Amino acid sequence: MMNETTCMVGIDVAKRKFDIALLINNKIKTKVFDNTPAGHKAFEDWLVERA
Q1: Running DSSP on this structure, what letter comes out for residue 16?
Q2: What's the predicted TM-score (pTM) here?
Q3: Judging by beta carbons within 10 Å of its beta carbon (0-12, 13-18, 19+), is residue 35 exposed, middle or buried?
């Protein structure tokens, strides 16, 4: 039997930052990142940690 995980990401992008809302199995995590290449990498790393 396989366990199924539900995951959704909401992204609100502005000029200097972007806000993330991550829903995994009915639990919400939020975080704000700089809208720069370094911020995009930080978001990618943050998301991989939660996968």
Answers
A1: S
A2: 0.82
A3: middle
